[in-house]
Prior knowledge:
By secondary structure, the protein is an alpha+beta fold. 27% of the residues lie in helices and 21% in strands.
Amino acid sequence: xxxxxxxxxxxxxxxxxxxxxxxxxxxxxxxxxxxxxxxxxxxxxxxxxxxxxxxxxxxxxxxxxxxxxxxxxxxxxxxxxxxxxxxxxxxxxxxxxxxxxxxxxxxxxxxxxxxxxxxxxxxxxxxxxxxxxxxxxxxxxxxxxxxxxxxxxxxxxxxxxxxxxxxxxxxxxxxxxxxxxxxxxxxxxxxxxxxxxxxxxxxxxxxxxxxxxxxxxxxxxxxxxxxxxxxxxxxxxxxxxxxxxxxxxxxxxxxxxxxxxxxxxxxxxxxxxxxxxxxxxxxxxxxxxxxxxxxxxxxxxxxxxxxxxxxxxxxxxxxxxxxxxxxxxxxx
Length: 332
């Protein structure tokens, strides 16, 4: 690990000013991913600005919206009563997203800013990674790529976005509040993360020094059922091969409202709006769910190592929708 300066921020404004003015500075919160990357030599900030003592934690409810401070831990959000009652898809994603030890340390803001789990990005000995070294290529396009993306991919990068939590938050139209040198602004989470295109090293829309301060999460209506399905190689401490967050309101056998997002198969948390349109007003049947699932992968760009995800993504979507509609093999 490279030597670095440690600074404890006195307030949010001072933290923003420090990181904005120093291209070698980075924020430090839970650090559960950041410190690993520093130890591996992938990241080497010259200064860490500790924000953990800023008043950016806690959860409040305003009507049908939760205001979640950026320093709230994953465990705190999972344990909040309204999350369990009105947002099962969020609670399930949090509990499946990390071990209990990590959930008690990792923050909500940091979770949304997770760096890729791509083996080529995380290995400094690997010369070809456009995220880590722009212009060097993407080794995953021709090398082993089982954990990589089929949606939102480009010829420059096929790394999957790592966050489980971001998937249901995208489905819910959550809004991120940020503070920067020019003041405060809000960003819909659906437009927060950037697909790689030809600049895969630019992963989000935050300007230099901008700090996530909170996330606004709408509560689902009581009549809506929701859930998160994560398909992985083992049941704990593993990243998704494919995942789906869904919310479904079925009335007299007809889908009145639907929300759907996918993880594990895309370069960003993937909102499946075309699938939602197929679902709304249609009968809540397996046939309808399969039709919706097919629209999800219409623009898939698999490489040999990820070809299986085209089918896996569809099966994951159908399974979560069947479960929520009460017609699948796992339905209650």
